[in-house]
Design goal:
The chain has 319 residues and is of the alpha/beta class. The chain is 39% helix and 13% strand. It has twelve helices and ten strands. An eight-stranded mixed sheet has the order 1-2-5-6-7-8-9-10, with helices on both faces. A two-stranded parallel ribbon has the order 3-4. Helix 5 packs parallel to helix 6 and helix 6 runs parallel beside helix 7. The longest helix has 20 residues. It is globular. The relative contact order is 0.13.
Length: 319
Amino acid sequence: MRDLKIPSQRHPEKARRPDNAQPKKPEWIRVKAPGGKGYAETARIMRDHNLTTVCEEAGCPNVGECWSQGHATMMIMGEVCTRACTFCNIATGKPPEDLDVFEPGRVADAVQKLGLNHVVITSVDRDDVEDGGAEHFAQTIRAIRHRSPGTTIEILTPDFLHCDPSVLQVVVDAKPDVFNHNLETVPGLYPSVRPGARYFHSLRLLQRVKEMDPEIFTKSGIMVGLGEERQQVHQVMDDMRAADIDFLTIGQYLQPTPKHHVLDRFVTPDEFKAYEKAAFGKGFLMVSATPLTRSSYHAGDDFARLRAARLARLAKAAG
């Protein structure tokens, strides 16, 4: 039985990798330790419903802030991922269990008890499941809609790389408000950062969502500080806009352990501001580019701004 608290068992594929030094974080990247009443209550609801969160599994630096406000990104389909991305702290290997048919209901119940206006649902990759978990995502969306009809739903999905292309329609037909799939990095770094994925497949996935249902907002994100060049980041922005992606997130890569991908550098807040300005100039409806930006950080507030930006653009086009 694996103990996922032990790094060598959590990431067996990384055990033989050389150690990469973890440099000291600069002032702008430091956060307060989690705690407080709100944090404890969110943790209790997650435990009572036997739910996994990406906040914990991926070691997100914003967990204290988000959980204290009752916001948690729920991770469905287990806690073991079939991919072995070198940047990621989620446990990797062959998932020990089948998909839990009762999980969508537990997620919906937790969303209702937390009183969420906006929820983010993500998952591990499940290449061992024929549809990659597409129907499980759809069932979770429908369960939340049934229990909390006023809650807007954002999903952060795998790439469904090894599935029949038709499985994407299953997820789109469930009508999430936001469909997010992260490109994670520039294409030149995929072999070392995201070896199990394909850049243009991920890009096309998001483009297909928009073709299937133009009303769904599409969203994607990348990390910086992995060794990318600035011009490569701008090319990714252009690729995303060509795929009609609405919302871009850019955050600082933080190396989870010495066995993970080496941290190339800490990108300064001024550089993030420059990326944000460039992205808005390229036509994104919404951009979040800060050192601590993560896919679901401030997702509810950002969704409100995203919706307002679309309405403003439509009004301008009509006027």
